[in-house]
Amino acid sequence: MEDCIHGEDLWLYEFYLSGELIDRFSTMPEYWGELSPEEKTSPRGDAELLARHWPGSKVDAVKRYLCNWEKMDEIWSGVLGKAYQDDRYAYGDCWQSTDFLRKLGTSYPENV
Predict the structure, then answer these.
(1) 23-73 per-position pLDDT tens digit
(2) Does residue 87 belong to any structural domain of this protein?
(3) Is residue 111 part of a domain?
(4) Contact residues for 96 (Cβ-Cβ < 8 A; gap 6+)
(5) Total structural domains within the chain
(6) pLDDT confidence of residue 51
(7) I want to staple 83 with a disulfide (CB 3.0 to 4.6 A). Which of 7, 64, 78, 106 is the partner?
């Protein structure tokens, strides 16, 4: 899995299995512009797929992270807060990806 924080605006991942991209997710998929029809139909954050292929992963432990921030007006008013009660970071904070990685049983590299 490749996890990325971009300019403290968003976070995203690409998930590869045997060298093939099988899933991808971005909290702001149209950040760089409108998506092509192909991009709109490509895999977009599939918690069930992660649970099947990531050892120890559980659907219910990660599915709330996989939402589009651009389509959630409530986030910016602080209504939704965090994906899970034990998270450190809320929706709208790019460091939420570290909570997501923790739920997968891994961590964000400290020295990048």
Answers:
(1) 999 888 877 778 787 776 666 899 999 999 999 899 999 999 998 887 777
(2) yes
(3) no
(4) 11, 27, 65, 82, 83, 87, 89, 90
(5) 1
(6) 93
(7) 64
